[in-house]
Design brief:
This protein has 80 residues and is mainly beta. The protein is built from one helix and five strands; from the N terminus they run ββαβββ.
Length: 80
């Protein structure tokens, strides 16, 4: 996903207004990762969101290719 930042949330899931880089965090999906691969890490934003329930800041206004694939069922979800 071409998103180098995300918007952190507060304790009631309201975006704080900060735009935080994904680099070095479990929110970095700029290269392929299994969604559950890092979901159990000790990272405040994962705890507040009870996982990934955040906005990602896309890098450009062009259409973005995002694909989610389940290798067990071979089900694929894509935005194109």
């Amino acid at each position: 996903m071409k998103a180098s930042a995300f918007t952190p949330v507060d304790s009631v899931m309201i975006p704080t207004g900060e735009i935080r880089p994904v680099a070095g965090t479990p929110f970095d999906f700029t290269t392929p990762h299994t969604i559950g691969e890092r979901i159990g890490l000790d990272y405040e934003q994962l705890k507040l969101g009870r996982g990934y329930d955040h906005n990602f800041v896309l890098d450009n206004a062009e259409p973005v290719d995002v694909t989610v694939h389940d290798p067990l069922t071979d089900v694929c979800l894509s935005n194109y």
